[in-house]
Amino acid sequence: MTSTSIMEFAPEYVRAIGMISIENANMELALAALFSRIIQVQLKTGRAIYLTPKSAVARTEIFENAAKAALDPEAWHGNKAHHDEMRAALNKTLNIIERAKTAIGKRHGIMHDQWGVNIDTDEVERRSLGKPAKTDGVVSVETLESLIASMRAIICEARELAAKFRTKPPQMVDMRIDA
Fold it and tell me: For residue 46, with 0-12 CB atoms within 10 Å meaning exposed, 13-18 middle and 19 or more buried, which class applies?
C-alpha cells in the first residue's frame, strides 16, 4: 500500500520548503566561515566550534558574543581610522547575525509546522503542531520564496565579508606610516 501526501498536489510549495532547508544549511556554513575569520582560526576549527551546539539559536548567540568581543573597537589601540574600521566590521557582522536569527526562526516554524491543502478552497495552509499560532492559515508561495531570497542574501554577504576578512582581518592594524 502506498500513500500520498496532499502536498504533492502543490509542488511549488514542496520545492520552496525544500529550498528553505537547503539554503538554511548553506547559510549555516557561510556563518561558520565568517565566524572562523572573526576569531582568526582555520575554517575547519571555526566550523567545529560554530556547529557544535545543536541549537541554531545557541550558535548565533555564541557568534554574536564572539564578534562583540573580537571586534570591539574600544579594546584595540589603533588610530581613529582603525576604530572606525572595527566598528564598521562589527556592525556589518551583527547585521548579518540578526538577519540570520530571523531567517532561522522562520525556517524553524516552516519545518516544524503541519502543511496541507484546504479541501474547500484548495489553498495551502500551515498549522502549528502546538497551540494555534499567528502563522497558522493560508501561506502564499511568495512568502516562502521571500525567505529563500533573504537566506541567499545573507549567504552572499557572509561569504563576501569572510573573504574580505581573510585578506585583511579588521583586527589587523595598518602599520604604514602616514607621510
Answer: buried
- The answer to whether 30 and 60 have CB atoms below 8 angstroms apart is no
- As a whole number of angstroms, the distance between CA 157 and CA 153 comes to 6
pTM metric for this prediction = 0.89
Cell 516554524 appears where?
109
- A 10 A CB-CB count for 40 gives 13
Q: Is the Cβ–Cβ distance between 123 and 117 less than 8 Å?
A: yes
Q: Average pLDDT in the 124-150 region?
A: 92
- Bridge partners of 114, per DSSP, are 127
Dihedral, CA atoms, 45, 61, 162, 42, nearest 10 degrees? Answer: -10
Computed over every residue of the chain, the mean pLDDT equals: 91
- Yes or no: say if 129 and 114 are a contact pair by the CB < 8 Å rule: yes
Q: Tell me how far apart the alpha carbons of residues 30 and 158 are, in angstroms, rounded to a whole number.
A: 6
Q: What burial class does residue 169 get, using C-beta atoms within 10 Å of its C-beta: 0-12 exposed, 13-18 middle, 19+ buried? A: middle
- Which tens digit of pLDDT belongs to each residue from 86-95? 999 999 999 9
R_g (Cα) of the chain, nearest Å = 21
Q: Where are the domains of the chain?
A: 11-103+142-167
Q: What is the pLDDT of residues 64-81, one digit of tens each?
A: 999 999 999 887 776 788
Distance of CA 136 to the CA centre of its chain: 23
